[in-house]
Amino acid sequence: STPVAKVCGLSAAAKMGLIIKGGSHLEALAKVKAMAFDKTGTLTEGAFQVVELQNVYPQEDIYHLLYWISSLENLSSHPMAKALVEYARLQGIEPSKEVKDFKIVPGEGISGNVDGRVIEIGNAKLASAKRWLTNSQFDIKEEGITVGYVGMDNRFIGYFCLGDQIREEAADAVNELQKQGIHVTVLTGDSKAAARIIQQQIGENIEVKASLSPEGKMKKIAELRERWGLTAMVGDGINDAPALATSDVGIAMGVAGSAVATETADVALMSNDLRKIPEAVKLARSSLGKVY
Ligand code: ADP
Ligand code: MG
């Protein structure tokens, strides 16, 4: 195709709320064979609601549990964090401003020292590594909900359940991509159960891979490239930056995503409307004047 056609495609894409950073990405988008989606904040709104908060021992009352949780989450940019800090504030609990040794374990959780106590918050992977649930009175079933486990000085002290919602256009967008002949996969750091719910809502014919670390997501992208060819990744940049960088076309969620992701991505979705992605593929294919 001609360079002129590519430039036209880019500005048409910008008009529909999609910034494609250069003709080579437009061409790649036209030829994409596989596309991977991050779950939280990408296929879902990432607008979490706290639906349950439970302490394990009576001495660690809900008030303190929430204080420790919000103190750590206040330093995190994960979509879960905002919901927890707001929930605490609604109960009059302000996060500590003196958290020490704050650490992020990507795809697993966070930790830090609050008032001399080591607090850890994370998913089932963390809970099982710490053996928090063995001999526990709690048999927690993660059915379509995201569970966070909380430990203090290595001891399991509580958990919370957060609900998130699939974006209303997610199923349409994915089904349209499939009609375009693109293999769609969901890659998530969340549990199998949470991934399964997404599969039920979008379609049984999408592939889902759960409990992935950021490196795990990156490896899956490499596998997709080997199996299908040109592979795109759609993510919000939180725990999926390596996968975005490894893909042939990195598509970042503009509004919901992290600023760095939007800057480094090949394509930025300014409206967060996932339907713009199959529309962009269509536009890319027609502006290159070929049907792939
Ligand atoms: P996804 O791939 O669905 O976007 P992430 O990779 O961002 O999910 O996160 C994976 C999991 O790690 C989350 O489902 C959560 O259980 C845990 N996690 C990550 N960050 C935090 C945090 N700030 N607080 C609690 N848990 C977290
Ligand atoms: Mg995410």
TrEMBL record:
Compartments where located: Membrane
Gene Ontology MF annotations: ATP binding; ATP hydrolysis activity; metal ion binding; P-type cadmium transporter activity; P-type zinc transporter activity
Keyword Disulfide bond (UniProt): no
Gene Ontology CC: membrane
Keywords from the named record: ATP-binding, Cadmium, Membrane, Metal-binding, Nucleotide-binding, Translocase, Transmembrane, Transmembrane helix
Primary location class: membrane
Domain of life of the organism encoding this protein: Eukaryota
Name recorded for this polypeptide: Cadmium/zinc-transporting ATPase HMA2-like
Originating species: Ananas comosus (Pineapple)
Organism placement in taxonomy: Eukaryota, Viridiplantae, Streptophyta, Embryophyta, Tracheophyta
Shown part of the complete sequence: 362 to 653 of 773
